[in-house]
Each structure stands twice: as structure tokens, then as C-alpha cells.
């Protein structure tokens, strides 16, 4: 990897285009290096994973609204929308499928200087691949780039410190991945990356306070923007430049300011793109920092005879967990039993309480209003708090994968004074966890989420196509869509009439 120092440059300064971060990203995108077998294998896993969570979310209102928007844009030779027949405009297919993937907060993650769900790249690239008649090999190459760029940006540039939403790393990564997949010239990719970043910067209010359905829509919007940015760049249109380093650019005014410096690692010429293998998916439908606490709660449950005897629970954890989904956020909504699913998903206090009581976690039952409003749950929930522990924060940011941790130490004090403690560094499904996810676990997750949603024969057809992705020929990527049972689609809630 080559470490690139990125900082604000004066307009009067000699700063060649080839030195812009957007251009260096474009250089990675055009590198003809072959995709390693482990990268290609993990790409297949993540396509299956995205289909699993889309099946689980397909009848939910935000997903239904996005799907119905896309269905107003039919297009011969277009792209598929998850769950339904027909072909539609690729940018709107990317939009609808992106919402389905993100709605339940149940797919892959990478955490470093910032946060990300790199599987959000997949809907945009699949939609465009279907539109242009790309092959499975082309798609794999594009997704290897998209994952690499997003993860490398997340390693080097912290957005959340300045309250910028993490999808600002997604627009550029999807644009770069599309450039690789389409075999575009370096200058076209450079312009598309700049446009995509310029149009996908927004505040983190979408993940603060009373969290709304826009949390699911934001990544889909970034994917749609990336498709449109590439389309414009292919037609000869340009972008603000230098987008990161300019005097009025992203670093100077949205991030650390004119004196800030960031180090972004990118593969050198001929270096394989392996970043996807450093990311990890979720066994539980909850914010990633909750994955290990859920497993920890399930493990600790047998050590407490009666949860009514609990006096207090303190989770000692990282800065991120404490301030984003813990009591350090200062959000009273995180203790509100009437809060939205999106808000409860970002309350580790609620999640730990339910997992401790149930010894399990379910993507629907664990968030049901009647579940959140159980008096004994509310009582236990309000006994839970978080504190930042410097050691957990250090491990969170560690570059050593063997000590990098996203968990917590739980200190449970009972009314009789007994103290029960335990800790878990990584979730059971993490590559270093008790039960790491491999192909069998991804297929099992799809089968569980698709049960009663997708006919058994259709499940088998899809998993065969996804598993054989590398051998799918040009024009065959429509096989990556999944048809949902008619009665499931009919159960989707009514949505208001829009403009379109």
C-alpha cells in the first residue's frame, strides 16, 4: 500500500491534477491487476448477504416506497428491482435496491477512522452492470475496486468527528468501482469521483436523535448519485477540483480545516485489491457496535437467576459505542419505548436489555413495539449505561487485526451486591470470533431471511447464479435478481401518492 498525504492546497499553489486524491483513486480503478481468489469469493458472499437482508426487508414501508418510485421508470434494456419483474432505469434500480439492502442495518461493515457499510456499493454496480450487459467477471472487478476505495477512505479520513455522514466515502467508491467495471478512461473516472463526493456530503443528523427512514435512504441516494455522476462524466462533463484539497474543498470547510492532514492508503500499481476481506458482516440486525454486546448478553444470561435482581449494568466500551449508540450520545430517544426502529437500532442499552432477557436476537420480534414497551424491559433498559474505556478505544483504532475490537466489558451489579463481569472483543460472526461467517453461514442467512418470502426453487436458482458469478457471461447478470412471492408483495403497506 502507498500512503498518500492529503491536505488543503491554495489556489495559487502548483498542484498537478495527477496529485489530486481523486486522480489517485482513478489510477487504482484503471489498474488491470487481476482480482485475487479470496476477494472474488468474498464478493459472492456479500452479494448473497445483500439478497438475504433485502428479502427480510422487502415488505417494509421505506423499501416499498423506494420500489414504487423505481417502478415508475420502466426502461427496455434496463435493470432489475429486487423482488419484482420488469426492467427499470438503472439509477432508480440502484436506489430501490439500495434501500432494501440498508433498511434493516443487517449487512456488512468496516470500521476504522470512520464507519462504513461497503455492501452499499453493490446495488449501484449490479444495476449498471445489468444495463450495459456486463459479465460476472466485470462486476467482480468493479466491486473489488469499490470495496477497496471505500475501505481505504474509511481508514484514512474521519468524517464523523466533523458530523459528516459516512456516505461521503460511498459516492466516490461507487463511482470508482463503476469506472473499473466499465473500463473507463482515467480522466473520466477522476471527474466522476469528484462529482460523486461533491454531491454526497451531508450531516450526520440522519443518525442522531429521532432517527428516521432516511438512514436507510442515505446510502441508496449516494449510489444513485454515483451512477448519475459516471453517466455525466462519460458524456464529457467535469467536477469541482481539487474536490478534497481545494481552498473551498471538502477538507478545508467540511472536515479538519486548512491545516488538517490525512493519510489515505491506496494499492500501488499491480497490487491486488483485498480490502473486502478486512470487512465483516452481521449475524444480528443491529448497528455493528451492538454485535458483540448481543453475543455477550446471550452468554451472560445463564449467570443471572432473576433479571429483576439487577441493580445496574455498565458497559465499558469504545468512544464510538459510548458516544454514538450509548449514553454518551445524550439522546433521550435511546430510552424511549415508542422510538422508531432506526432509533432503537442505535441504542445499545435497549439492545443489551432485550438480548439479556431473550437470550436471542430477531430482526423483527426484537424491535416490535410490544417488545419495546414491556414493563420489565423498560425497567432493565433504564438500568444500563455506557462509559468510554481508553483501552477499548485504543483497540478499536488498532491497525493490528488480532487486537482490533468492537466489543465491551459488562459489569452487572445485583441488588445483593454481587458483581458479575464478562467481556467480548469481537462478535461471534467476526472472522476472529467464535463462529466466523463463511459461505455456509451466508447461505444459511439467506435461507432464513428468504423463508416464506421467496419460493424454494427461486432461492436455489439465485444462490446457484450468485455462486457461479465469475462464469456468468455478458448480459446474464439479471440472474442476480430475486423474485418475491406475490402474497408477500401484496402485504406491503400502502404508501402515500407522490409526484412521480
Summarize this structure briefly.
This protein is of the alpha+beta class and 500 residues long. Helix content is 44%, strand content 10%. It has helices at residues 21-30, 37-57, 61-70, 90-102, 121-132, 136-156, 170-182, 186-198, 214-234, 250-253, 291-300, 319-325, 341-344, 348-358, 369-372, 375-381, 390-397, 439-450, 456-467, 486-490, and strands at 2-7, 74-79, 110-111, 115-116, 261-266, 310-317, 384-388, 408-414, 419-424.
Instruction: Give the helices and strands as they follow along the chain.
Output: EHHHEHEEHHHHHHEHEHHHHHEHEEHHH
How much of the residues is beta strand, in percent? Answer: 5-15%
Distance between the termini: 46 Å
CATH superfamily of the largest domain: 2-methylcitrate dehydratase PrpD
Count of separate structural domains: 2
The level of helicity is 40-55%
Shape descriptor reads globular
How many strands in all?
Answer: 9
Radius of gyration: 22 Å
CATH class of the largest domain: Mainly Alpha
- Biggest sheet: strand arrangement: 7-6-8-9
Named at the architecture level, the CATH assignment of the largest domain is: Orthogonal Bundle
User: Number of helical runs?
Assistant: 20
How would you name the oligomeric state of the polypeptide chains in this document? single chain
Low-confidence stretches: none
Structural class: alpha+beta
Biggest beta-sheet profile: 4 strands, mixed
Please, what is the average pLDDT?
Answer: 96
Keywords: Lyase
EC number: 4.2.1.3
Pfam family, one: MmgE_PrpD_C
GO molecular function, one term: aconitate hydratase activity
Amino acid at each position: 500500500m502507498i500512503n498518500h498525504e492529503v491536505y488543503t492546497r491554495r489556489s495559487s499553489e502548483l498542484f498537478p491534477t495527477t496529485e489530486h486524491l481523486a486522480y489517485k483513486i482513478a489510477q487504482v480503478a484503471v489498474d488491470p491487476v487481476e482480482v485475487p481468489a479470496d476477494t472474488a469469493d468474498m464478493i459472492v458472499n456479500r452479494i448473497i448477504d445483500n439478497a438475504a437482508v433485502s428479502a427480510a426487508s422487502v415488505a417494509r414501508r421505506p423499501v416499498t416506497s423506494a420500489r414504487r418510485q423505481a417502478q415508475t421508470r420502466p426502461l427496455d434494456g434496463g435493470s432489475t428491482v429486487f423482488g419484482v419483474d420488469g426492467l427499470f432505469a438503472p439509477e432508480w434500480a440502484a436506489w430501490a435496491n439500495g434501500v432494501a439492502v440498508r433498511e434493516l442495518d443487517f449487512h456488512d461493515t468496516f470500521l476504522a477512522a470512520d464507519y462504513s457499510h461497503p455492501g452499499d456499493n453493490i446495488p449501484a454496480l449490479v444495476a449498471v452492470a445489468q444495463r450495459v450487459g456486463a459479465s460476472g467477471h466485470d462486476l467482480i472487478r468493479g466491486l473489488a475496486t469499490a470495496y477497496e476505495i471505500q475501505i481505504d477512505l474509511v481508514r484514512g479520513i474521519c468524517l464523523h468527528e466533523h458530523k459528516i455522514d459516512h456516505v461521503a466515502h460511498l459516492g466516490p467508491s461507487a463511482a470508482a468501482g463503476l469506472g473499473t467495471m466499465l473500463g473507463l478512461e482515467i480522466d473520466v473516472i477522476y471527474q466522476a469521483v469528484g462529482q460523486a463526493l461533491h454531491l454526497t456530503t451531508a450531516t450526520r443528523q440522519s443518525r442522531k436523535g429521532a432517527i428516521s427512514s432516511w438512514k436507510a435512504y442515505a446510502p441508496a441516494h449516494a449510489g444513485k448519485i454515483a451512477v448519475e455522476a459516471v453517466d455525466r462524466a462519460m458524456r464529457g462533463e467535469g467536477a469541482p477540483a481539487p474536490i478534497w484539497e481545494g481552498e473551498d474543498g471538502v477538507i478545508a470547510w467540511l472536515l479538519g480545516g486548512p491545516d488538517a492532514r490525512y493519510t489515505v492508503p491506496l494499492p500501488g500499481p499491480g497490487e491486488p485489491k483485498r480490502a473486502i476481506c478486512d470487512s465483516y458482516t452481521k449475524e444480528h440486525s443491529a448497528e455493528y457496535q451492538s454485535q458483540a454486546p448481543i453475543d455477550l448478553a446471550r452468554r451472560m444470561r445463564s449467570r443471572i437467576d432473576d433479571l429483576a435482581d439487577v441493580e445496574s449494568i455498565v458497559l465499558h466500551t469504545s468512544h464510538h459505542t459510548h458516544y454514538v449508540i450509548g449514553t454518551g450520545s445524550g439522546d433521550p430517544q435511546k430510552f424511549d419505548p415508542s422510538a422508531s426502529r432506526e432509533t432503537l437500532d442505535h441504542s445499545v442499552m435497549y439492545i443489551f436489555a432485550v438480548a439479556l432477557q431473550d437470550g436471542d436476537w430477531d430482526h423483527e420480534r426484537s424491535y416490535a413495539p410490544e417488545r419495546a414497551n414491556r414493563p420489565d424491559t423498560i425497567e432493565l433498559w433504564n438500568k444500563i449505561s455506557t462509559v468510554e474505556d481508553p483501552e477499548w478505544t485504543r483497540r478499536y483504532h488498532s491497525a493490528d487485526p488480532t487486537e482490533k475490537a468492537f466489543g465491551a466489558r459488562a459489569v452487572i451489579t445485583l441488588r445483593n451486591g454481587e458483581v458479575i463481569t464478562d467481556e467480548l472483543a469481537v462478535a461471534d460472526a467476526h472472522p476472529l470470533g467464535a463462529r466466523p461467517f463463511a459461505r455456509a453461514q451466508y447461505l444459511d442467512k439467506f435461507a432464513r431471511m428468504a423463508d416464506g418470502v421467496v419460493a424454494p426453487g427461486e432461492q436455489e436458482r439465485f444462490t446457484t447464479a450468485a455462486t457461479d458469478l465469475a462464469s456468468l457471461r455478458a448480459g446474464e447478470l439479471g440472474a442476480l435478481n430475486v423474485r418475491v412471492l406475490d402474497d408477500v408483495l401484496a402485504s406491503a403497506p400502502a404508501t402515500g401518492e407522490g409526484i412521480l
